[in-house]
Amino acid sequence: MSEQEQHSASGDLAEQVANQKTLAARAAVQAIPDGAVIGLGSGTTVDAMLHELAARVRQGLRVTGIPASQHTASLATSLGIPLANLDEVSTLTTSIDGADEVTLPHLHLIKGGGGALLREKLIAASSQYRIIIVDSRKLVPALGSAHPVPVEVTPFGWHHTSTRLAALGCQPRLRTTAPASLPGEAVGQSGQAPYITDGGNYILDCHFGSISDPQALAIAIKTTTGVVDHGLFLGMTDRVYLSVDTGIQIYDRPS
User: Fold this and answer.
1) Radius of gyration, alpha carbons of the chain
2) Quick check: is 172 in a domain?
3) Does any domain span residue 255?
């Protein structure tokens, strides 16, 4: 394949993914009731959702959004979506977010590729109903198949925290200002400045490979000294809107 053909194929794939994100976002937004307090996640899929939500707001839908990141807050404000802080509301009607990986049938997730996992998890935990919107690339046979588990850690002593996490069977890598994850690369090897979360913490991208027991791993990571939280979202999703070439597939968490 020539360089021109490769570029064309890459462009076609990007357009296909963008269209899938828009379709999934549109389907999720149509289910939002008037007067809802909505948790707004973070990431490119959520960006697409915000444009769909803003269109409904312009048509008269009354909502209050609770943003999970500064980026989401900025975009939502520019689109005219009313916002509030999480501590200003007692509960959220629903939350809408994306994911890096999804497994069936329990709708377990890996999240945090965009760096907002802590606030996304706080919003999900405060929501009565949690919706995830993804394109077809995000459905995997096992968590960890394609992405590392992001782990948010305190900057103080992060080298030592990384060593403790490595003892759990992973290859941690400090996320830098250009977040890219290569298995086996030494922590901090790039020499770039660490990526700083909205909460002022660092992120270690931990490569475990396919995870056989997500529940046990989640407990082990969470109880590691220096860890703030992690990107395993287990039992925290009620519905997934999965966009594929043939349309939208809807998956509900088993009761």
Assistant:
1) 18
2) yes
3) no
CB atoms inside a 10 Å sphere around CB 128: 12
| pLDDT-based confidence at residue 15 (cuts at 50, 70, 90) | confident
12 and 128 belong to one structural domain: yes
Paired residues of 63 in beta bridges = 36
Amino acid at position 123, single letter: I
Whole-angstrom distance, CA of residue 202 vs CA of residue 173: 11
Residue 249: inside a domain:
no
The answer to whether 52 is a known catalytic residue is no
Is the distance from CB of 97 to CB of 107 less than 8 angstroms? no
Q: Note if the bond before 33 is cis, omega within 30 degrees.
A: no
Per-residue pLDDT reduced to its tens digit, 22-56: 888 999 999 899 999 999 999 999 999 999 999 99
Of the candidates 88, 120, 152, 185, the residue annotated as catalytic is 120
CA 220 to each of CA 32, 82, 211, 216: distance values in angstroms, whole numbers, following the listed order? 36, 39, 13, 6
End-to-end CA distance of the chain: 49
- Structural domain for 159, as ranges: 149-227
User: C-alpha distances in angstroms, 151 versus 139, 154, 231?
Assistant: 21, 10, 6
What CATH number corresponds to the domain at position 59?
3.40.50.1360
Nearest to 172, CA basis, from 188, 154, 156, 194:
188
